[in-house]
Amino acid sequence: MEILDNLNEGNVLLKDEQMIRKLKTDAMDAQDDLRLGRIALLGLIVLTILSLAFQLYKGSGLLGILLQNGIMLLVFGWAFYYSEKNPKPAFLVAGIVYLLIVLLAALIVPGSLISGIVFKIIIVFFLVKGIISSSKFEEIRSQLRAYGEDLKIRGIMNKKY
Fold it and tell me: Which of 3, 119, 132, 144 has CB atoms 3.0–4.6 Å from 149's, for a disulfide?
């Protein structure tokens, strides 16, 4: 192993320690992006609940409303919960379901695609960013395991590293 000088503290570090620190720093960045993706999932859950309440208030097609919003709540809730354990499939499923809902709504009501387009782009952006970050995080995690270290995905409200 090559020995490098650490100029900040004046002590000597092994090259492996330098690599581990770099990988942990990269993992922190990926975890921040995963946190934003989880917040987007939480936003989808809240919007689905608000949509359910509004549609129930209007009172048309009770069974269809409960079925549609119930399935969306189950999928987004599962994705939010599972994204802490294994984020890539959770973000993929949530992203596919969200895009299918948006596209089906656009087929039924063509103007619905344009309404709220900024919000839709933001949600898709964070879900895609979550997918990319989860791939990066898994790669970093496997590299750290080679050094005998392990990482866990922190919760949405936990900013501790």
Answer: 144
d(CA 71, CA 81): 15
Instruction: Tell me the domain boundaries of the chain.
Output: 16-146
* Alpha carbon 108 to its chain's center: 29
Q: How far apart are CA 44 and CA 76, in angstroms?
A: 7
- CA dist., res. 81 & res. 42, Å (int): 10
Q: Return the closest-CA partner of residue 80 out of 121, 114, 149, 126.
A: 126
Query: How many other CB atoms are found less than 10 A from the CB of residue 129?
Result: 16
What is the token pair recorded at 126? 């964070």
In terms of Cα–Cα distance, which of 158, 159, 154 is closest to 83? Answer: 154
Q: Please, which residues have CB within 8 angstroms of residue 89's CB and are 6 or more apart in sequence? A: 82
pTM for the whole thing? 0.76
Phi and psi for 149 in degrees, rounded to 5? Answer: -105, 160
> Cα angle vertex 27, ends 23, 33, to 5°?
150
Q: For the segment 88-118, what is each residue's pLDDT rounded down to a tens digit?
A: 999 999 999 999 988 988 898 888 888 888 9
